[in-house]
Amino acid sequence: MAGGGTGLNGAAVAVAALEAWNSCGPEGYVLNTGKLKEALPAIAEKIPCRARQAPELGRLFVEEDGKAPVFVQMLRPQEDQVHFLYFWKAFGEAARIAGALAIEHDSLSVELEMLRDRVLRLMEEALAAASKGAKGELPLAALFEEAHRAASMSAYPLFWSQAVASLASGPEPNGSVSLEEMTYLLLSWLQDSALWEHREEPRQDSAPSTSQASSREAREVAVQREPNAPKGLPVFLHVYDVSQEEGIQKLNRVLAHKHFPLKFGGVFHAGVEVNSLEWCFGYSASETHPGVACVEPRGHPMHHYRQTVAMGYTTLDGEQIADIVTQLLEEYPGQDYDLLRRNCCHFADDFTRRLGVGGIPGWVMRLAKIGAGVESMIQSAPKPIRQRFGFLTGEEDSD
Q: Which positions fall inside the PPPDE domain (predicted)?
């Protein structure tokens, strides 16, 4: 069971839930209960947990008196299948029991969870009221009403009003939605909410510059202004919005698509600058082409620059840094790139730790993980769902 010091927020738990779900080998948005039971120990290991709450969490995964484990009961399986939305909900409830969730106020991720739970309850009521053989679907009008209710009590009312406006502007603003379609919609809002919460993230040296020289000069001036600055070379993490990279540009459309007004960036690409050179990691189909590349600081040709985070100072000299880069070139071949498990953020985190300045900020890694997890789920949606709601995620031209 994953250890936890300070409490995690809802977005971090959603990341863990996505990772746990994808590791179970689901078929789209559903998972066979047989596979689920086999995966229970692995799922329990992924739930964040404080040490003193470990026994309580463990009891959720143990059969008692011939009954299924409490965690399985929380999933409310139907016809030997578990649906992702119930998995996400149960995973979060287990994390709360384990004491890993922080008490949050004015959290958009919590508001999204509350909307999810209300929608699930409404869909259960619709299913119970439906005639035998009929599908329990939720009218879009009811979803709009719930979103407007969320906006009226939200610290982020504009998020909800724009989310509803985006959905209402689509080709089918009326009708109803199934549980699978609702999952697609909530997933598209999950990453949006995480990015929205971080749109005010403090930025250093964030103004665009016209040249590499002026960029470096501005950063050096900023470093010199720091009182009692230690000796050594400054290290910077440059964060980009993915804009042109073929393998993952669709995910950026979750926020950047023309029909969606929440344009605060998409999936993040990250590079590390040290000794006036920026290093990053990306996919390469060729065995002979390295995955690690060197670009002008803040000037990656395939991405749109977003912001810079000052990581601190490395005590290593140029020769020692070159040795680390040589090691990274060997350890990060382009064919090893994986959107979920080995991407540019993992590389940047590894590099900064080897430079002795610690790992990259948690919010960068968290948003990258949310984006990767959402992309995996969006791509697994049935074709009819992507055809109907693909305008929200940039998928309407796919297939």
A: 233-379
Determine contact, residues 69/40, Cβ cutoff 8 Å.
Answer: yes
Q: Are 20 and 84 in contact (CB under 8 A)?
A: no
- 257 Cβ neighbours under 8 A, 6+ residues apart: 391, 392, 393, 394
Average pLDDT in the chain? 79
Q: Give domain limits for the chain.
A: 10-97, 212-374
pTM, 2 dp: 0.71
Candidates 354, 38, 374; CA nearest to 187 is 374
Cα–Cα distance list, 119 to 78, 91, 174, 282 (Å)? 17, 17, 17, 39
What's 212-374's CATH class? alpha beta
Q: Which residue has the tokens 């919590």?
A: 110
CA distance linking residue 334 with residue 287, whole number of Å: 7
- Give the pLDDT of residue 211: 38
b/e 307-322 (16+ beta carbons within 10 angstroms → b)? bbbbbebbebeeeebe
| Cβ atoms within 10 Å of 229's Cβ, excluding its own | 12
Q: Is the pLDDT of residue 312 over 50?
A: yes
Alpha-carbon distance of 37 to 296, in angstroms, equals 50
Q: Which SS3 state, helix, strand or coil, does residue 303 take?
A: strand
Contacts of 68 (CB under 8 A, 6+ apart): none
